[in-house]
């Protein structure tokens, strides 16, 4: 088991009653007819897409009601109410797979709320959401908490959002033992240092140094010259005719660049990375990676130019064990470097080498995918949501490793929603919206 | 995602058309019965007749835009030709001394009977493809599953379990693209059976999460009610009756 | 995952045949993954289909359509898994579009049922490679008969025999061997924790 990636939990809205009594209270508030064994608890998981049962939003919200054998008329009245409670009035007929991640997560909450549970459990419900989506979900939680109809148990890394709505915070250490429990202000005052030491995020403005490993060694922009690594000129792209994803994107990436590619869910960040790596071909415009069109490079040439760390580390795993994964396709020199990276990123092969990559914790998986992306010292390192689900120590190790790579004359292009990562690890911010680059603090955007 | 591989978008217009309003089980039944009916004959006329009926009703009674229907069917024209050619080359008639020889290609003797049968089997594929296209382009999957549960007495746990799993299709397609990209960026060939391991790991994890989410929402905990009631209608009887007549007429045509 | 097991009220006996929601979803999702694979495969088959290249080689890839009928049962080890997975895969590939339209459902049923029969004969207790091989060949045999009637009705005995041999080889290598290897790889990853193990 990892000593870094273990449960950390914040319990919000827990009013001190024991859970079963809270559930009973919830049932009594509710005046809806009880026609079947009803459930006291609802659960919302991290990945919005893996909770959607039905194709259409209304049907999905009704799913739990059907299972509890609510009569038709009551269901018809309840579904719009539940959708209204999460700010999705009128979404009944929409297809859930076509909603943004934030909307999907709100549908999931509506589906759980529909049955009026006494206890609502949420496991990192906003981990993959953009700041707008995350804010919308937290606004709903705040609202629910203030109405006091259900007890909310929230497992969350985003302390800044979670702590303010919590009545009670429970922090767990690496081995799952509680470090502190109590009202947020008390926990912060009494055990802030210990939480800090355990690598737990604290709400911003709390004690402890601002995380900024890279801040001190920041290389001045363009210090390594203006050797262009990646150039995009007037790049247009769409998956289907009539729905452009990128409209006309210009981007110059030079050695030493650390670019944060930001923008709402669905703005085309991942798509832009895939285009830059030659995994997709633009409809119009030109892309040059190390001077050549990336989609024309052979796979082997491509590996020297670019490394790719995908959003979900599991989608980058190709081997049966961590050791094989790390050494896959590398020459002796690169293998040495890869082993060194493993040690530095706290993934010693003596301990993890024989494990299946899929058995690592989320944070360990992320670091493994970084090792595989960095091992060939690529000119361009493309990262998709690198800090997804990371605790503070994972974050710091990541920032330091990236810093070193870029210091050696490479460039980094990271799609991210994480403002803290933007601040700590990047020095140039490129914002995408609706298929346009709407802001780039290096270039003037017309 | 390539243009030939797509999940059809069954819009409101198709769903409210005559064929769209027909119960999916009736449509499925017709498709299977027609298919079995076609198995009774190798004559070229019955499949061509059913092909024409399927296409015409798809466009006029099913409100399927011609372009969509064409795009759906076109890739499989090759299959019809391929099946015809295989049957032609390996036809039992070719070695039958009583069969009329048309021409020879090297050692191969091609007979008129073989050509007729091959044409019939090729047309059979074309008919099946068209019937399938009209079915999928006018049928809402949720309604199909609802009908199976409410009218077909299929276990709701299995039916809705499958429906929930089916919602993962876009995710699986997306995962496949990402996995291939990751392989390419590591200097490996993109298509490899190992892709399946990655895909299945993700899919099974997805299934686990879904199972937790569904159980937490009371799935299978007892009797359930339905939010979308489905009942047989007169239209179903009319469509089923017409389809039976059409099949009979097509088969008589082949006599 | 043990959490699901724990969710069962204490004292409830676990009957091997009882399907948990997790079993249903995992079987269905295996079907869906293969439905997507079939969609590609249908197209590959259409392009290289018998006629374009010698049938022996074409039918060597036939096995891919039968994999869920063996892989799903060997993973979830529940009665009916072969038919269920194969039908879901068939349904998904029909929705994507296939040269056999709704007949895929019929094929899926006979292919799944044939494999199911073999697993039932072992009372769902024997999951050794030879049993997988027999189930795979049974499934291929069902497909062979079905296709004979519907698609190769006019072909002579030579082609039917070539098909039989090639499909049997394909079933043994791709279906039985492939499922065996896939299951082993998947067990290593930990996603199958909580499902019956080979040793059990
Ligand atoms: N299926 C499994 N097999 C083996 N170990 C596992 C498995 N699932 C989890 N673990 C281990 O159990 C520990 C706790 O995992 P858990 O998922 O509860 O962490 P978490 O606090 O939710 O972490 P995160 O913040 O990354 O989501 C980890 O060390 C993980 O490696
Ligand atoms: N394979 C695909 N087929 C069709 N549309 C797609 C496909 N992949 C992505 N899209 C669409 O393209 C748009 C851009 O998607 P992309 O994944 O690049 O967004 P993103 O900025 O990375 O979002 P997120 O912040 O959620 O990761 C979205 O509207 C998405 O729905
Ligand atoms: Mg977690
Ligand atoms: Mg993205």
Key terms for this structure?
heterotrimer, B: 255 residues, mainly alpha, two-stranded antiparallel ribbon, 12 helices, 2 strands, 65% helix, globular, C: 200 residues, disordered N terminus, binds adenosine-5'-triphosphate, binds magnesium ion
Q: What would you note in describing this structure?
A:
The complex is a heterotrimer of chains A (446), B (255) and C (200). Chain A is α/β, with parallel strands linked by helices and 446 residues long. In chain A, the strands form 4 sheets. Chain A has a 6-stranded mixed beta sheet, sandwiched between helices. A 3-stranded parallel beta sheet of chain A has the order 1-2-3. Chain A contains 15 helices and 14 strands. By secondary structure, chain B is mainly α. Chain B has a two-stranded antiparallel sheet. In chain B, a hairpin with a 2-residue loop joins strand 1 (101-105) and strand 2 (108-111). Chain B starts with 11 loop residues before the first helix and ends with a helix. With 200 residues, chain C is mainly α. Chain C has 8 helices and no strands. Mean pLDDT of chain C is 84; it is low at 1-14. Chains B and C meet through helix 3, helix 6, helix 7, helix 9 and helix 10 of B and helix 1, helix 2, helix 5, helix 6 and helix 8 of C. The complex binds adenosine-5'-triphosphate (2 copies) and magnesium ion (MG) (2 copies).
Rough shape of chain B? globular
Low-confidence stretches of chain B: none
Beginning-to-end CA distance, first to last residue of chain A: 51 Å
In one word, what is the shape of chain A?
A: globular
N→C terminal distance of chain B: 45 Å
Helix/strand order of chain B: HHHHHHEEHHHHHH
Q: In short, what is this structure?
A:
Chain A has 446 residues and is α/β, with parallel strands linked by helices.
List the helices and strands and how they pair.
The complex is a heterotrimer of chains A (446), B (255) and C (200).
Chain A: H1 19-29, E1 41-44, H2 57-67, H3 72-85, H4 101-113, E2 119-123, H5 131-147, E3 151-155, H6 159-162, E4 169-172, E5 178-182, H7 184-197, E6 228-240, E7 243-254, E8 258-262, H8 269-276, E9 284-289, H9 299-305, E10 306-309, H10 322-327, H11 332-344, H12 349-352, H13 362-374, E11 380-384, H14 392-407, E12 411-415, H15 419-425, E13 428-433, E14 436-440
Parallel strand pairs in A: 1-2, 2-3, 8-12, 8-13, 10-11, 11-12
Antiparallel strand pairs in A: 4-5, 6-7, 6-9, 13-14
Helix pairs in contact in A: 2-3, 2-4, 3-4, 4-5
Chain B: H1 12-15, H2 18-21, H3 24-38, H4 45-60, H5 66-73, H6 77-89, E1 101-105, E2 108-111, H7 112-138, H8 141-150, H9 156-166, H10 169-185, H11 195-216, H12 234-253
Antiparallel strand pairs in B: 1-2
Helix pairs in contact in B: 3-7, 3-12, 4-7, 4-12, 6-7, 8-9, 10-11
Chain C: H1 2-7, H2 21-48, H3 55-60, H4 67-76, H5 81-96, H6 103-121, H7 129-150, H8 157-189
